[in-house]
Amino acid sequence: MYFSRVTLKLNQLPYVIQKKMQNSGPYAIHQWLWQLFPNQEKRTFLFREERISKDYQYYLLSEVAPLSNHQLFLIETKPYLPKLTIGMRLFFSLRANPVVFKNGKRSDVMMNAKYLIKQQGLKTNEIKICQNQAAINWLIKQSETRGFSLSTTNDQQVNCRVINYAQQQFIKKSDLKPIHYSSVDYQGVLTVTDVELFLETIYQGIGKSKGFGCGLFLIKHYQ
What we know:
By secondary structure, the chain is an alpha+beta fold. The chain is built from 4 helices and 11 strands.
């Protein structure tokens, strides 16, 4: 596996491409990043977008090394093989699209929680707390089969918090309906419970909308 930091050369974007980025957002970025893997018919990478001041930066985890040169991107790549052990604690940052299925249909975890909580007549600030807890509960459920658990603090609270929640919308093609999805940014500390299973989770990603920048675990040793 390879881990890359890719910076978009905004000053070299033609006007037409800038407009496409505004209208198609994650879909356009996904297509451009795929150009870094010219011989791959299927997507073999996960990515995450970060805004650094006015710049757009992307973290990529891929099965093959990306191109080292591209007109749109500055690319920095290194081999990626984390050395993990059972019981190791890791700080993590994750952007995911957590969903539940109701009556065979996919539903946003946060909106589903809001719908259920509103029926109880709670205040707005209480709704947000319950929504964040629903998102963390989703991650706890995922961890049970993915080789990790969320660590706890000294007072036995789960060491995980929701940093951001965003509802995304973009147009893939002008003659198609807009695509909607939601993303939740998590930060916290996890404990590795199964090395091979957790490595598979890192490599395959977690949750839905992986093609739009969700699912990539960013990890580092927790001191």
